[in-house]
Write a structure and sequence with these properties.
The structure is a single chain. The protein has helices at about 10-15, 30-45, 135-145, 150-165, 175-185, 190-200, 205-215, 230-240, 250-255, 285-290, 310-325; strands at about 5, 20-25, 50-55, 80-90, 105-115, 125-130, 220, 225-230, 260-265, 270-280, 295, 300-305. The chain is of the alpha/beta class and about 325 residues long. The chain has two domains: about 5-200, inorganic pyrophosphatase (n-terminal core) (Alpha-Beta Complex), CATH 3.90.1640.10; about 205-325, Diaminopimelate Epimerase, Chain A, domain 1 (Roll), CATH 3.10.310. The strands form two sheets. It has a six-stranded mixed β-sheet. Strand 11 (about 295) and strand 12 (about 300-305) form a beta hairpin. The chain starts with a strand and ends with a helix. The relative contact order is 0.10. Bound molecules: manganese (II) ion. Manganese (II) ion (MN) binds near residues 134 and 164.
């Protein structure tokens, strides 16, 4: 697949020709799509453009510190017209959600993105599947436009770069990531403060639920599979919601000697939600598919009808079979 299609000059032409610009983020917004959009708004407004921010989804509380976080609107009809619609970090048109309707009221459409599967769904596309984050491409875009960085813009770009690289730990992290980071640091980036907000501070519910999850931790398959379970009663006791359990499965996977990890949680309607993880070269997506779920080779999910323990036994048996095969 052709992944190198950076075209900041084409995007710059679109921007220079536009006065009113709608910037669209993707559904279930993350740090990269919101950081990209917020940075664009700050930069383009500094050059006299009129910028409108759109996102079909709730801005996560954790990202409410972003400059302009309160400016994102869900399109409800009646917006525009705009000279340009620019989507950022949106891998395909479906991921625009309600923002897709803005195409019809925009004279020109363009996008900046870093997903290798992007089908280039706008009129002008600057897409590089090898870039660590869309925010890396935004930095390049601003350079081509001749718009200088500011501390506020640096905060936005750091948010996207740090979250999409797993705080500079994922394999997408490359030399360009750190070259851009060097420039952001020169703007007085408050690194420690932002790192705390994005990667350290947890809600009380999350920490209490972590205690329950670790209390349930068991090792199966000769110690190569970490299994954790959370019941409805656990969530109730912690005052926690299902989303507070989202990253807990990693504690199982991070345990030395484990190749796979699973976290099963009781959900509404008697359903059980599974988070499956594997260390390369092991994979769990085939197990997830077998039980009606899906996902990535090393990170998948399943939703099954309970009861909890019977479901866990079936999934763990499938995992044990795979680790025994190696
Ligand atoms: Mn991204």
């Amino acid at each position: 697949m052709e992944t190198m299609r950076r075209n900041p000059e084409a995007i710059a032409r679109c921007i220079r020709n536009a006065k009113t610009i709608a910037v669209a983020s993707h559904i279930n917004p993350d740090g990269d799509t919101l950081g990209s959009a917020a940075a664009m708004a700050l930069a383009l407004e500094a050059t006299g453009k009129e910028v409108f921010l759109f996102c079909d989804g709730k801005i996560p509380d954790q990202l409410s510190f972003l400059p302009g976080a309160d400016r994102f609107r869900v399109p409800a009809g009646g917006e525009g017209p705009f000279d340009l619609l620019l989507s950022v970090d949106v891998s395909d048109e479906k991921r625009m959600g309600a923002c897709a309707a803005l195409k019809a009221v925009s004279s020109m459409t363009a996008q900046i993105d870093h997903h290798p599967t992007n089908p280039l769904f706008m009129q002008e596309n600057s897409v590089d599947g090898n870039a660590a984050a869309t925010c890396v491409l935004i930095r390049e875009q601003l350079a081509v436009l001749g718009i200088p960085l500011t501390k506020e813009i640096a905060i936005c770009l750091y948010t996207g770069i740090s979250t999409d690289t797993g705080n500079f730990a994922f394999s997408c992290t490359d030399a360009e990531t750190f070259r851009v980071m060097g420039e952001l640091m020169e703007q007085g980036l408050p690194l420690v403060e932002l790192n705390n907000i994005l990667f350290r501070v947890k809600s009380r519910e999350q920490i209490l639920l972590l205690g329950k999850a670790l209390g349930s931790l068991a090792f199966r398959g000769n110690g190569r599979i970490a299994v954790m379970t959370l019941t409805k009663a656990d969530f109730l006791a912690c005052g926690a919601l299902s989303e507070h359990a989202d990253t807990l499965v990693n504690y199982g996977l991070d345990t030395r000697g484990t190749e796979m990890a699973v976290l099963a949680r009781e959900a509404d309607g008697g359903q059980v939600k599974f988070s499956l993880r594997a260390k390369n070269p092991f994979r769990v997506d085939d197990i997830a598919i077998r039980f009606g779920g899906g996902g990535h080779p090393q990170a998948s999910g399943i939703t099954m009808q309970g009861p909890l323990e019977a479901c866990v036994e079936r999934v763990v048996a499938a995992m044990a079979e795979k680790v025994a095969d190696e």
